[in-house]
Amino acid sequence: SAGIDIKKTLDQLGIKETNQGTSTGNTWFSSGDPITSISPVDGEKIASVTTTTKEDYEKVIASAQMAFKTWRVMTAPQRGEVVRQFGEELRRLKEPLGQLVSYEMGKSYQEGLGEVQEMIDICDFAVGLSRQLHGLTMHSERPGHRMYEQYHSLGIVGIISAFNFPVAVWAWNTALAWVCGDVCVWKPSVKTPLCGVACQHIIAKILKDNDLPEGISCLINGDYTVGEMMTTDSRVPLISATGSTRMGRIVASKVGERLGKSLLELGGNNAIIVTPDADLKMTVIGAVFGAVGTAGQRCTSTRRLIIHESMYDKVKDAIVDAYKQLNIGDPLDTNNHVGPLIDTDAVKMYESALKKVVEEGGKLIVEGGVLSGEGYESGCYVKPAIAEAENEFEIVQHETFAPILYLMKYSGEVENAIELQNGVAQGLSSAIMTNNLRESERFLSVTGSDCGIANVNIGTSGAEIGGAFGGEKDTGGGRESGSDAWKVYMRRQTNTINYTTELPLAQGIKFDL
Ligand code: NAD
């Protein structure tokens, strides 16, 4: 692949030709079948990772349960110090880890580095948070009583992640969970197992340097059957799962059956509204990056552009023009804008979506297609496509994880655009391009966007770690990362203390003996 010595990168990250896929920290084992990781960049086999069996899983849970006893009684700032060191180690390994993300998943090297930067940022956030796990005090209705609430560590947090953010999603969860005093068991996507192995090596070194026990950071590998070992296990009080809505429904019901907690980060169907007062240049950059960045494989990728009829032709022409300038190819070559899809199954889904939109009456204005020949040997490279479509088309209602952008018109007031924007099952990210204060405030009001993320004069894709991240409806309702998202990783306890010699009851109830 262009410009990188992948063997050196793998060496720096402790990845061998065959790797054990189960780990409790510095102990690695596994007796299941190997998963071979193939790069979508060049179709080459990178390395293999063995899967976790039920027996291996039991060892992991026993180790995590033991570790929790030590970890939860350390002070939160002490745990924050471990996370600080982890962030430092990530700074040191940013380049090789960014390269591995790019090579195993297929996103551009810049985006691979960006993903590692997100890990570093969340570590910094978590370090500060470790001194701010605040509860509240309340005034008691009973005299001589004090009432407050506090947050305690929860236990084992099970993390199930998707292929498209193979390292950052783990860090979003784990950095917060650790300062909260939880221990973590991570099952990465079966499509990006080496990113999991690399991250586990990085944290294992830090835990060892600090003489901490095995079990604080654990790794398991395999497909959904391995994920199900956690979702059905009541020893794992919280499951944080990132992936498709289909997966989320199954996970929620399994975890719900045992009354566990789940944090769900599922699919999106994100739109940008372009009003008559939009800045055209900003709209084009925001829409094109949102639609083709990560080859349309972000949960926040822009899928729909809802354009006012008075601007429609102008916006359409400018975007079609911009698409002509896109270079598609090796994501590690910085001249390219668009890399491959994750695998050939994703290519099939892309092709079938393009077929479907035409069958439903849509019109392709930038034709897609699968690329072949030199540089495209993996069979995973596709051309970003644009179709004019209606919001109610079945295919438009559906999240296709590929660079396909649907254009649609609205007329009249911004309310009509908001109705279209909200008229899908998913509710992750949304944006409006406008310099009109009334339109932007309407979009952000209670009758505006129904999504977890609503942006003004920014596209739908990409988010900072300081805010809570997640979405409503079929996106699952979970929130991760910044703001007070940490609370889900802890259990809340309300405490009332009586410092009198009487025992008055609440609500003035009399109970005389
Ligand atoms: P996926 O649903 O196929 O898999 C995600 C993870 O869930 C994998 O680790 C998989 O092994 C596991 N899994 C699947 N079925 C399971 C089950 N029944 N029990 C336990 N685990 C199970 O998703 P993907 O193709 O890897 O990722 C793409 C999807 O993820 C898109 O829909 C995208 O929008 C979504 N996503 C959402 C966010 C977000 O924060 N909202 C972030 C990234 C990706």
Automatic annotation (TrEMBL):
Q: Would I find DNA repair among this entry's keywords? A: no
- Record-listed E.C. numbers: 1.2.1.3
Catalytic residues per the record? 265
Which InterPro entries does the record match to this protein? Answer: Ald_DH/histidinol_DH (IPR016161), Ald_DH_C (IPR016163), Ald_DH_CS_GLU (IPR029510), Ald_DH_N (IPR016162), Aldehyde_DH_dom (IPR015590), ALDH7A1-like (IPR044638)
Asked if the Swiss-Prot or TrEMBL record annotates the protein with the keyword Cytoplasm, the reply is no
- Top-rank lineage group of the source organism: Bacteria
Alphabetically ordered keywords of this record: NAD, Oxidoreductase
Q: Identify which top EC class this enzyme belongs to.
A: oxidoreductase
Any Pfam family? Aldedh
Residues annotated as domain Aldehyde dehydrogenase: 33-494
Instruction: Identify the SUPFAM superfamilies for this entry.
Output: ALDH-like
Subunit annotation: Homotetramer.
Q: Which PANTHER family match?
A: ALPHA-AMINOADIPIC SEMIALDEHYDE DEHYDROGENASE
Q: Which family does it belong to?
A: Belongs to the aldehyde dehydrogenase family.
Its protein name is aldehyde dehydrogenase (NAD(+))
Source organism: Gangjinia marincola
